[in-house]
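Give me the fold.
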Amino acid sequence: MAVDDTVLEAVRTRIGTESAHELGTITALMIRRYARAIGESNPLYYDTEFARGCGHPDIIAPPNLVTAVSAWDEGPAEDGLRSDGVPTAALQDLPTEGVRVMGGGEDIEFHAPIPAGTTLTERSAMVGAELTHGSKGPVIVVRYRHEFVAADGRVLLTSTRKVLLR
């Protein structure tokens, strides 16, 4: 099925719908493992005393750690994935049968460092959808806003992700 104005209007019915879920506590072990995985050597991500000397309560997460995690649980079983690998639950209520789903980029705004021991909630909302035309035909660009919020209510990071439906 090709995307068109009918699919776009169905997608747009979800604009403004918000959700929130607890991500849990960002641990020092998570931070160190992620920093190693991306080849990071900054002592802020490994050395508690160094981080404290820089004014942080503990080591801090590399800036994109929380946005790089695609699932904060064990993830779905194979029968919970589409043929393109996208979890079916991620696209709930969207008319994506026969539509290819792809990542379209992300803008990230960093508000404050995330030290080990921070408990986070992710608040998400679809904020827009538009039909454009690419070299291979029509594409719907869907934008989602994600806020990563500390237990005290401070927004530590905001990301805007684009998802392409073709």
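The mean pLDDT is 91.
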